[in-house]
Each structure stands twice: as structure tokens, then as C-alpha cells.
Amino acid sequence: MSIAATHIDHIVISSNDSAATAQIFAEHFGLEIKRTMSRPGTGAHLEFAKLQEVVLEFAGPGEVKPHDGVTAKLGGVVLAVEDIHATIAAIRAAGFPIGDPHPAVQPGALFTGMKGGTNGVPFGFIQYNAIPIPEPSP
Amino acid sequence: MNVKRIDHVGIAVKDLEAAVHTYERNFDLKADSSRGGDVPAFAIHNAFLQIGGTDLELFQPATAEGPVARFVQERGEGLYMLSIEVDDLANAISELRSLGARVGDPVNGLAFVSMKATHGVNLQLVQRG
Predict the structure, then answer these.
(1) Facing B120 at nearest CB: one of A73, A77, A121
(2) pLDDT 10s digits, B45-85
């Protein structure tokens, strides 16, 4: 089976306060937070930093609830692939469950996740330049 | 501190040989035969699979004790740690300590950062070259 993954595209760090976790990584490791957004549909708060080809995605709730302390953990790994439809077909042919592709938060990209993960690791797959990028409204 | 890149992602597994087979079969990756094996300093057996400029490191506890063994016992298999490459490990450790973060002394060219400094993410610093 070949999923034709080219590289790790991003690594998700899940936090109960993603802005705070992104900030502590910025302070301690000199990372530059390049982008902040709310995920359409879920309202999740996302912050992004990039180290060469790999994006660190800090993901948390849109509204931070009262907590006893900020806690974060590694939440998943997303691999960049050349043809997400071929990747999905290959994974299904090998007998593993994987969802249908849907537009990612990255413009023009399609994403899908492997249900159940592999050895406990949630893996996702992303293909850039997979769908037309909508023209901005005038 | 000059953080250069994500060096590798560490994944704790129960059975290294089976996990390598799974990743080779599922993701068409190949274990790097020039690296990996027994790492007594960390009580693990490990293997590296390269994907682009970053590696996946799979490791199995080599003993019933130690942090990786505890992780697997308590949480099962899964994402264990992130390793980031810095250009000067000694300088990075010094800088983090000056910011109040606890950092272990280097072992095998690696240093672990206290999870208090990362909100709980297990993070390792490494210097290559």
C-alpha cells in the first residue's frame, strides 16, 4: 500500500487554553505565532507556528472555561499527501477505516482523519491545492 | 534560542517490531536500519522512520520501570513526545533555565524540558551535527 505521504504537515497540540499554550511555547522556544483563527463550524480556537515544513497547531475550545491550570498534550499528526483520494482508497483497501475528505481550514486543501489511529496515534491526511479557492467577495 | 525544526515525533508502543511492521505496511514508510536499537539510558528499544525532514520514532519500554513504561501502562500506546532541534543545546538549556523552566542535564545529546514549561507536553531538545 502506498499513501504517498511527502512529509509531516502539522502536529496538533490540544490544550484547554490554546492561546496560553501557544504563548508559553513562544516565550520559551522563540516560536512565532503566525496565524490565529476560529475553526469554522466548531468555533475551536487555533493558533499556528511553523518550523520549516511542519506546522504546530495549538487547538483549544473557542471559549476557555474556568480551570485549575492549563493542560496540553500532543493531539495528533497530519501527513501531507499528493492525492488524498488515492490515500483513502489505499487505506480502505488495506482494511482500515478512514473518513471521507472534506475541506480543511487551509484554503484549497482537503483533509480526512484515520478513525481509531495507528498505535494510539490519531493520524490525519491533507492534500493542498485539491479544490478551487473561492474568490473573495467584492 | 534558535529552534531549527521538529526533529522527530516520539510514539510509545507496546511491541516495537509489530509497530514498525504496521507503519511500514500502512504508511509505506521504511525503518532506518542505520539507527535505532537498545537505548539503555532511556530504558527503551527504538526505531526511526523518516518522512520528509522529520522522523517518527517508535519506542517500546525495555523494562517495567521508567517513564515510557509508566506511560504505556497508564495510557496505552500513543504520542509521547516532541523533539525539537536547536543549534546549540547548552545555550538552549541555559536560556530556558534563565526563564525559570526546569531542564534536565543532557544525556546522549538530548535534554528533556519540564512539562510545567509546556503545559504538559513532553518535549525534548536535541542538537545535531
Answers:
(1) A73
(2) 999 999 999 999 999 999 999 999 999 999 999 999 999 99
CB contact under 8 A, B120 and A91: no
Q: Which residues, 6 or more positions from B50, have their beta carbon under 8 angstroms from its beta carbon? A: B29, B30, B32
Q: Which of A3, A27, A52 sits opposite B27 (nearest CB)?
A: A3
Contact call for residues A106 and A39 (beta carbons, < 8 A): no
Q: pLDDT per residue over A122-133, tens digit each?
A: 999 999 999 988
- The pTM of this model reads 0.93
Q: Is A18 left (phi over 0), alpha (psi -120 to 50) or beta?
A: alpha
Backbone angles phi, psi at B10, to 5 degrees: -95, 130
Complex ipTM: 0.94
Q: What is the largest CA-CA distance in chain B?
A: 45
- Read off the CATH number of the domain in which B90 is found: 3.10.180.10
Report the residue of chain B nearest A26, measured CA to CA.
B118
Ordered by start, the domain boundaries in chain A are 5-127
- Per the structure, the complete domain to which residue B15 belongs is given by 3-126
Q: Do B9 and A77 touch (CB under 8 A)?
A: yes
Alpha carbons B46 and B65: distance in angstroms, whole number: 16
Which class does domain A5-127 fall in? alpha beta
